[in-house]
Amino acid sequence: MVTNHKHVFDKKDRPLRDLRISVTDRCNLRCTYCMPAEIFGRDHLFLPKSELLSFEELERLAHLFVKTFGVEKIRITGGEPLMRKDMPDLIKKLSYIPGLYDIAMTTNGLLLPVYAEKLKKAGLKRVTISLDSLNDERFKAINGRGVSVSKVLAGIEAAKQVGLGVKINMVVQKGVNETDILPMARYFKEKGEILRFIEFMDVGNTNEWKKQSVITKADIIKIFNQELPIEELEPNYKGEVAQRFRYRDGVGEVGFISSVSDAFCGTCNRARLSAKGELFTCLFASTGFDLRALLRSGQSDQEIEEAIHTVWQNRDDQYSLDRTHSKTISKNKVEMSYIGG
Ligand code: SAM
Ligand code: SF4
Ligand code: SF4
């Protein structure tokens, strides 16, 4: 166990604990709430490869976060992380970092039939797979590319077959897929997977978010209790993002990520690294600190650690809490596909 960490706390006394790394801003889907096809069309300019952090640069930064600040969990995300070639190679590099106990990935699942086995062998522990409906017509419309549900289900199956931990994320939007809540719940209860409901968030500036389009945790609990009663569970650890509930019949669990109706900024301990190596201290930030510039100008590990330390110490983000009190609705936020969900 590595013990000489410089635990760093921000202005609201929140430690730096988790790191989320976006490895690419590209995606093979165009979910309406994330990368609407009208905006992310053929002429959209994605980052060229030279702008992305290389696997060696990512490994170096991840190592610093773990060794210096005691980060124990890293989640790989995007865009669609499996669009980046050779992802198992990155996972393998990360898996050798002493003190890093958990490597997870958030993915749309489409490429898992190709990569699940290699990812597991490389040291990936868990995947969170996004699926918003079991109804083909609705799912095709939501994902913006006409991809059918069976493709994601095949990805889920591939992950399970090789022994990866699997959770499912469902973004719920009013008038879009609230009728899918119970069918999704029944299906994944039966399959033994934890389904998490994510409130539609105002990430980025392109998804035309409106508060009226949000189906809240409370709305969903009401729907459940008419047919499949659930009750709240204790969190697994402090700062857990999803609130856990179990079915009252004792079989299965669901979760809620309720950043709109019940903001959890008070315990937010996540740093985010964008695809081109900027350190963001909030999902709703407009700018990040350019760590890539330090890496590429030959700065020492110590200089980079000091920069990370300073950024975290100066952090006072609490966008979702402020939104709850209607203080801010920023118009200049980074897109989720770029910073990573
Ligand atoms: N492409 C991968 C995927 O879809 O799982 C990883 C990146 S995606 C940005 C990460 C997560 O963010 C997904 O579960 C997605 O559903 C969620 N997400 C994207 N836009 C969102 C929004 N506006 N509100 C809530 N969740 C969102
Ligand atoms: Fe792609 Fe994931 Fe965004 Fe959907 S949510 S567009 S799959 S990055
Ligand atoms: Fe963390 Fe920002 Fe989300 Fe609050 S709004 S929970 S500070 S990422």
UniProtKB/TrEMBL annotation:
It comes from the Bacteria. S-adenosyl-L-methionine binds at residues 33, 79, 130, 201. InterPro entries: Aldolase_TIM, Elp3/MiaA/NifB-like_rSAM, MoaA, MoaA-like, MoaA_NifB_PqqE_Fe-S-bd_CS, MoaA_twitch, MoCo_biosynth_MoaA/MoaC, rSAM. It catalyses: GTP + AH2 + S-adenosyl-L-methionine = (8S)-3',8-cyclo-7,8-dihydroguanosine 5'-triphosphate + 5'-deoxyadenosine + L-methionine + A + H(+). Residues 11-231 form the Radical SAM core domain. Pfam families: Mob_synth_C, Radical_SAM. The keyword Iron-sulfur applies. [4Fe-4S] cluster 1 binds at residues 27, 31, 34. Its EC number is 4.1.99.22. The keyword Metal-binding applies. Monomer and homodimer. PANTHER family: MOLYBDENUM COFACTOR BIOSYNTHESIS PROTEIN 1, MOLYBDOPTERIN COFACTOR SYNTHESIS PROTEIN A. This is GTP 3',8-cyclase. The gene is moaA.
